[in-house]
Amino acid sequence: MTREVDYALVGGGLQNGLVALALAAHRPGATVALFERGAAVGGNHTWCFHAGDVGAGAAAWVEPLVAHRWPGYDVAFPDLRRTIAQPYACVTSARLAARVAEALARPGCELRTGAAVLTAGPDAVLVRDGEGRVEEVRARVVIDARGPERAEVGGRCAWQKFLGRELQLAAPHGLERPVLMDATVEQLDGMRFCYVLPLDARRVLVEDTYFSDGTYLDVAALRAEVDAYAAARGWIVDEVVREETGLLPLPSRCAPPRASAPLVAGYAGGWFHPVTGYSFPIAARLAEAVAAGGDAVENLARDHASQLGFALRLNRMFRWFEPAARYRVLERFYRLPEATIARFYALQLTTADRARILVGRPPRGLSLRAAWRYA
Ligand SMILES: Cc1cc2nc3c(=O)[nH]c(=O)nc-3n(C[C@H](O)[C@H](O)[C@H](O)COP(=O)(O)OP(=O)(O)OC[C@H]3O[C@@H](n4cnc5c(N)ncnc54)[C@H](O)[C@@H]3O)c2cc1C
């Protein structure tokens, strides 16, 4: 069987979910087929992003995905505590799945779950359904976003690994804002911090997170760390509502994003922030560019590649420092002006920002000049 659509979206995760929404917003007449091998779009995630990182064009279709918003966030290190007044937002898989299903309910569009794509070429995909039937779908544009496990990363790779537990507490936790990085915890397995999202007065997501040189994730040990973190704050847990784990490459080298067909998008195509592992804002920008058409994807790929080059260099430098002292690099970073911190997360650093990040007094016991030479 062969049929044709305007856009074939391979992989129904964050990236292609956002592409489907951008196309529905800007090209409602386009025919779109999305193929996801899992049972649902979006898997099991909470995706957070700095609200200012999503441009005006995407804001209208991103807004309905947002489950929580906060006006700022905190960071905590042994020698620094700071509140950063940058709005922060959180999107859930359930919301993404619901909005994508609505967006693809229009005539000529299709959302197929339980559908594994066997090959994704420049103008066609081969897809196998749950009963083993194979179909060819031809498309004007093929977007292959099969996730982080297909990312073309190289060099000496570090890993962001984490386990998050969403906890329902017996009494209010008292937090007003997320804590993006609490690095006052014991430093183990590279740099370690806890990430805390207050979802309502008695519900909180706590992630035990490592920027590690290895991929081993001891789920039982991380669970115990999350529980110990909650207990140390006097929180009594009524129920563990949900869990999520992640293992994301933070490479020192990676293939630059390409605009050629098929468009390899999302984490797999290098459309992510290699220092933080965030990809939401970049995925939203790419979705807007796909919907805009013309040279938009090519222009974005060029801009992103230049930012990526600098961020990859930072990763090489980070690894040069002793694992137990790496938190000091971040402690120093969080002393920078808020605007620089915001542009760092957005991956929109100016030349002055880059200089601010690299120059100045190095963290205690570290020589940035030496790190630069060895990077
Ligand atoms: C637990 C976790 C939390 C994260 N939190 C954040 C966050 O807060 N903020 C942020 O910006 N980033 C976050 N990230 C990083 C990044 O945003 C996510 O990894 C994001 O999901 C990447 O989007 P993607 O579309 O590239 O890949 P994915 O969302 O992983 O989607 C890939 C999809 O392709 C499907 N697929 C794979 N192979 C096939 C095939 N052959 N046929 C059909 N379908 C296939 C998969 O089933 C999957 O659904 C997080 C990552 C993880 C793992």
What's the short story on this structure?
The chain has 375 residues and is α/β, with parallel strands linked by helices.
Question: Helices and strands in order, then pairings?
Answer:
Blueprint: E1 2-10, H1 14-26, E2 32-36, E3 46-50, H2 56-62, E4 66-70, E5 73-77, E6 80-84, E7 88-92, H3 93-103, E8 110-113, E9 116-120, E10 124-128, E11 134-144, E12 153-154, E13 158-169, E14 179-182, E15 191-200, E16 203-212, H4 219-232, E17 237-250, E18 253-254, E19 263-264, H5 280-292, H6 296-320, H7 326-333, H8 338-346, H9 351-358, H10 368-374
Parallel strand pairs: 1-2, 1-11, 2-8, 5-14, 11-19
Antiparallel strand pairs: 3-7, 4-7, 5-6, 9-10, 10-11, 12-18, 13-16, 13-17, 14-15, 15-16
This protein binds flavin-adenine dinucleotide.
Verbal overview:
It is a single chain. This protein has 375 residues and is of the alpha/beta class. The chain folds into 3 domains: 2-68 and 88-152 and 252-303, 3-Layer(bba) Sandwich (FAD/NAD(P)-binding domain); 158-249, Alpha-Beta Plaits (2-Layer Sandwich); 322-374, no CATH class. Helix content is 31%, strand content 32%. It contains 10 helices and 19 strands. It has helices spanning 14-26, 56-62, 93-103, 219-232, 280-292, 296-320, 326-333, 338-346, 351-358, 368-374, and strands at 2-10, 32-36, 46-50, 66-70, 73-77, 80-84, 88-92, 110-113, 116-120, 124-128, 134-144, 153-154, 158-169, 179-182, 191-200, 203-212, 237-250, 253-254, 263-264. Strands 1, 2, 8, 9, 10, 11 and 19 form a 7-stranded mixed β-sheet that branches. A hairpin with an 8-residue loop joins strand 14 (179-182) and strand 15. Helix 1 (14-26) packs parallel to helix 3 and helix 1 runs parallel beside helix 5. The radius of gyration is 21 Å and the shape is globular. The termini are far apart. Flavin-adenine dinucleotide is lined by residues 10-15, 35-38, 43, 45, 47-49, 116-117, 145-148, 244, 246, 248, 266-268, 277-280.
